[in-house]
Amino acid sequence: MTTLEAHALNAGYAFLPQRLLFNDTTPANANTVDKFPAHFFHLHHPDKNLHFLWDAGIRNDISAYPPAMQATFEAFLHPYVPEDAPSGLARNGVAPESIDYLFCSHAHFDHAGDPEKFPNTKIVYGAGTQAHVRPAYPINPESRFLESLFPEGRTLELTKGDFKPIEGFAPWDAACDFFGDGSFLLIDAPGHMPGHTIALARVEAGYLLLGGDSCHCEAHLKEYVPGGRMGFGMHKDAGRTRENISKIVEFAKARGDVRICLAHVGIYKDWEKVVVKQGEGLML
User: Fold this and answer.
1) CATH code assigned at 134
2) Does any domain span residue 166?
3) Across-strand partners of 15?
4) What gap in Å lies between CA 55 and CA 85, rounded to an integer?
5) In a 3-state reduction of DSSP, which class is residue 258?
6) Which pLDDT belongs to residue 205?
7) Calpha distance 149→140 (Å, rounded)
8) What is the CA radius of gyration of the chain?
9) Average of per-residue pLDDT across 67-96
């Protein structure tokens, strides 16, 4: 049974106002901002000798983002990138040219990085991404997304038909077994935005649940229920976001071999080998 090796890296930071995260903010703290890391993960498939990424953080040339996105940066996000994904990988002995796949949990600026810096990489998006995003900037001058996120001949978008029935992974009943050996399962999980996916990466001792932007802080894993504190200003569809988090929590609680890895939550040491500890459950 193939297991993957995973390492965590950081590609930038941004700032989110608490009013977007929680629905009970007061005038006194509505403009309070929290600093958020943009984590991404390098994974290696030993049997196929494949190197691939889950997300790629923020590109370092912030000025390349569309004008509509720049306005949001100036308003509150204020992103900065001490080291982008290609540089972090190279520093750890992984050439950007050696990356076979970049799986983007979704196409937002702090996840898709700069595909042009991965010239040999196939860029994989979830079902419905391009219909929602394209035409992007500069074809659509009002878009917050870049057309360069979808390089011709290297972009692969999943379809609903790629998600096949699976057993043993309740509450999910369908997944895309991308490599055909159960080592990396992609799961359709819209809510945050169309095309948003999560993944289950089989590693030694269990599974990493790569959650993308299913939620933006650990508290949301407990406060997603109607009437809770969780705000949905960051999500396109509150109902589907709740459903996605509910399934993540159910899956983690039912097993002792899952580590939840969200894009903006937790602290990782540089190039940390991400492992599962017995009984870890909902610990991040």
Assistant:
1) 3.60.15.10
2) yes
3) 35
4) 9
5) strand
6) 94
7) 14
8) 18
9) 97
State the residue range of the domain holding 235: 5-273
Encode pLDDT of 195-214 as tens digits. Answer: 999 999 999 999 999 999 99
Query: How many folded domains does the chain comprise?
Result: 1
Distance CA 39, CA 8 (A): 7
Q: Which tokens in the block code for residue 152?
A: 């011709």
pLDDT tens, position by position, 9-29: 999 999 999 989 998 888 777
**Prior bond of 79 cis (ω within 30°):** no
* Residues 74 and 56 sit within 8 Å (Cβ to Cβ): no
Task: Report the alpha-carbon distance of residue 150 to residue 139 in Å, rounded.
Answer: 13
* 40, 41, 104 from 9: Cα distances, Å: 6, 6, 15
C-alpha 105: how far from chain center: 4
Asked if residue 278 belongs to a domain, the reply is no
DSSP output for 173-227: -EEEETTSSSSEEEEE-TTSSTT-EEEEEEETTEEEEEEETS-SSGGGGTS-STT
Torsions phi, psi of 73, nearest 5? -60, -45
Closest Cα partner for 41 from 49, 51, 31? 51
Residue 280 in domain: no
| Distance of alpha carbon 246 from alpha carbon 97, whole angstroms | 38
Full-model pTM? 0.96
- Helix or strand (DSSP H, E) at 40: strand 33-45
Q: Is residue 72 part of a domain?
A: yes
Q: How far apart are CA 270 and CA 52, in angstroms?
A: 18
